[in-house]
Amino acid sequence: MPRPESRSAWSARVCGAVLAPCVALAPLSARAEPPAPTVLQEAEDKAKVGDDESAMQALSEVIALDTSNVKAYQLRADVAGRLAAKYGPGAAFHAIRANDLEHVLALSPNPAQDGETMRELRTAHADATKAARQEQRRRKLLPAAMGLGVIGTGMTVASTVLLVLANTNVGNDETVHVMNVYSGSFLGVGVALVVTAVAFGVTARKQYSRDERARALFEPRYARRGIPQFGGGGLVLRF
Fold this sequence. Notes:
Layout: H1 4-32, H2 36-48, H3 52-65, H4 70-86, H5 91-107, H6 111-139, H7 141-168, H8 173-218, H9 221-224, E1 229-232, E2 235-238
Antiparallel strand pairs: 1-2
Helix pairs in contact: 2-3, 3-4, 4-5, 5-6, 7-8
């Protein structure tokens, strides 16, 4: 049983042991990501030179650090609009543009400009809906491509075998001619199906690549590095 005078010293040692790592790691939290104004300036510089992908990543980081930064929302809406045109149909970019315009209206009401912003918002929602339908049709091309590829390959192989057999066996000339016509027709259909399957597959693959690219651009850069986060309240440590 510790004496009363030693209990105070023992408590101080325990508190010191608990707080020392937090004090030592606090600078790491400050260095985990730069402050929002610094990143916002970086995003503006990237946007000015046409590097919209880097600007989008930086703006996503700004908004993650400061969810009430109206300027960041407005700039990211503009950048998203340009990226939607570049990566068309660009449903994800139209959607993020609409989301950011909603935040601009909510965080900074401006009667002189709200009318124009509302028109842009309605257009962004309409474009997002239209683009989402187009992109979904492209994604569905992948299973169709697989099915057509199997059928086309089977017809091509079967018609090739039939064509070889028809011309290697001695028989009635009329029969050989008929077999050549049928095998040639099947071969043409099979090749056409394979070519169509390849075209469908390429289109679907490009769409899935755009989906992945869009998700990466919307994530803050420190989140994309997979850095674990610890802490609560006002203290967040990222290593």
